[in-house]
# Entry
Amino acid sequence: MIKKWTKLGQIYEPDPVGRHPKLLTHAANPLAIHQEADIFRIFYSGRDERNRSSVGAVDIDIVQRKIVRDYYNPFFEHGPENSFFADGVSIGNSYKANGVQYILFMGWQASQNAHWRGDVGRLIVTLDHRLKLDSQQVFLGIDSVDPISLSYPWVRSASLDKYEMWYGSTLTWDAGNDEMLHVINYATSRDGRKWDRHGLAVPFQIGVAQAFSRPSVVTGTRDSLEMWFSYRSGTGEKYRIGYARSVNGITWELELENAGIDVSCDGWDSEMIEYPFVFDHGDKRYLLYNGNGYGKTGFGLAVQE
# Structure
């Protein structure tokens, strides 16, 4: 049975007037961290005039869908030249390990002489919900399993001594149809810091779903796991939000038709929908997502029926 999402509308679009130059446009990759009552701090990736992304935030009452406070200065900026996040910071999700809350992010490097690539970094969320870099070193970088580029990780605590991660990995920049093959891989850890990589988790289909991005994993019915993600088919379509299901988190069934959400007929999310973030609050399940322009039109909210 398809669980449909009811769109509640575009709830945030950054106003460039008076903003820090690192947050002039975009509010991509929204990530919600609970503050109090119905208020969540929504971290997002904004861009400067050179398209380098840094982390901004806005506090929103999710139930009333009202902005409580908009922060015009970045919470964390992209790194200096030659750092692994010199050209941007795109956030994944947040998790706790050993009493510390973290946010994982994709650090961008855009070399003039080579294709862009990404590595995974980690931020510490302080007690007052500010952000600081955990290490100048890459948290998860390329290796024999992930030889080209990494993207948006999602981590969940499966038990006291087991963490699971689903993340994007590039297998080739061109799968034969001018579209990259960027898949969702799986890794596990005992401490949330050192990871064992296990390779492909979600199956792909060339020409149907081959450019995956930003998995969002939650517990479904009967302890199954549900995943929403953005994807491209490779046939010229812009991003859509897809769905997969698993009983163990290791092997997944691709069920694109069961995402329960699609582009609108017109408006801010009529061309594309992408970068989902699924979370629960009260007795409801919510979805934050971006629309047209990879977050240039801000983000919207949906609730599951």
In short: The longest strand covers residues 25-36. The mean pLDDT is 96. DSSP finds no helices and 20 strands in the chain.
